[in-house]
């Protein structure tokens, strides 16, 4: 069974299960691919597999470990993600020290949403980088004994957003990892990771979701066939974007898309920018470039 509601990627699921069953778990992985394809969700799923106590199907979804993992509250799980860096924040501070109670509550709510929907991005307002503070906190805790049995797992979401200082500090941890620990880096831009970190990780590529998968999800939501075709053509295999588009006024979106195409046809730069910004990135991926995978 699957602990989290994940779509497709059966090949990678079997690959990870075989890795576990054959006792060939690597110290570090790089789960990469386009946004919304499931690489972040499978980082959570693999963590659940590693810590499930069932002797049969893993994750079983029933053992105490799976129940804790389902809410992302397992003691063996540590999450790293971009956080806002305030001017008065020292590099020695703990990552949450400079945040207000309301900011911490907002982050906790975002993580709860991630537990419910593994395709949801952990997107914190004003967060652009993963600072060295987060890595130093991991270094402080990863070598301590955990109250739970199983594997300690550190998931670094959007690992390509680590600062240079953070990357260098993280590399030192990868070079001397503690026993029974796994580091899972997720990224939609893996080429932005420093080569020495890439070389320490086992890469696993997660392709965009298939058209039939998106079709199935949208159909279950009662979206009409013509609307489904437009949404799928604009979502680039990104489930979150497809769902977001399904809740958008598609008539206005069609009009905006046609206007942008006309502006592109005559290469009216000023008009292109003027039209694209109000759409808030919903169709930018259609015209953007994708970096080559590692």
TrEMBL record:
SUPFAM superfamilies from the UniProt entry: P-loop containing nucleoside triphosphate hydrolases
GO aspect biological process, one term: DNA-templated DNA replication
One Pfam family of this chain: DNA_pol3_delta2
Coiled-coil region(s): none
Record Gene3D superfamilies: P-loop containing nucleotide triphosphate hydrolases
Protein name: DNA-directed DNA polymerase
